[in-house]
């Protein structure tokens, strides 16, 4: 890794799929990592066939044993990256035991990746309630019917439970289950990876330094 470079807070995002020389061969521009994410994410929503907000979420239990799964990004900004889950499932148990995680976005259509690492904490009830209210009714009912990550004897059992909760809440709103909420990952490190010809990839690294960010580059 080269010199980490100066601290900064704002700047101009880099355009995508550029054929121009790498910024490492020019005077380095200072960039807001969240503005850059907004730009790349907006482009991914235009080019990805399915689920541009899909991301791999890696967690580890208290003994450091890792696990990973795909989840959906449901909010993002300088305060963090938000996803939702059943708090009685494995991922939530691991995050509550060991509140650190890593995210990975892979946008194949753009030949890009974004890696994000940081501490994790639950969102507040108002944020979780607002998102839950925006879900489709069947998705809301599914949150009540599923004992996420626990053994299931047959799919028929699950569908019977779904029918039961559908009948229970028929004719009225579906409240958020007490065991269902969200987590916010507060980034400490963000890497932007851009594919280049001949495996001469470009890797831009942002690391939090107090209230600011330090930008550097990594060898591919």
Describe the protein.
The chain is of the alpha+beta class and 220 residues long. It has helices spanning 33-47, 90-97, 125-134, 137-145, 155-168; strands spanning 7-8, 54-60, 66-72, 75-77, 80-86, 100-107, 112-122, 180-194, 202-209, 212-218. Strands 1, 2, 3, 4, 5, 6, 7, 8, 9 and 10 form a ten-stranded antiparallel beta sheet that branches. It starts with 6 loop residues before the first strand and ends with a strand.
Helix and strand layout, with pairings?
Elements: E1 7-8, H1 33-47, E2 54-60, E3 66-72, E4 75-77, E5 80-86, H2 90-97, E6 100-107, E7 112-122, H3 125-134, H4 137-145, H5 155-168, E8 180-194, E9 202-209, E10 212-218
Antiparallel strand pairs: 1-10, 2-3, 2-6, 4-5, 5-8, 6-7, 7-8, 8-9, 9-10
Unreliable spans are 1-28
What's the total number of strands? 10
**Derived structural class:** alpha+beta
Q: Helix count?
A: 5
Gyration radius (Cα, Å) is 20 Å
Overall pLDDT, averaged?
A: 89
Judging from the principal axes of the Cα atoms, what is the shape? Answer: elongated
Supply the key terms.
ten-stranded antiparallel sheet, 220 residues, 10 strands, elongated
Short account of what is shown:
This protein has 220 residues and is an alpha+beta fold. The protein contains five helices and ten strands.
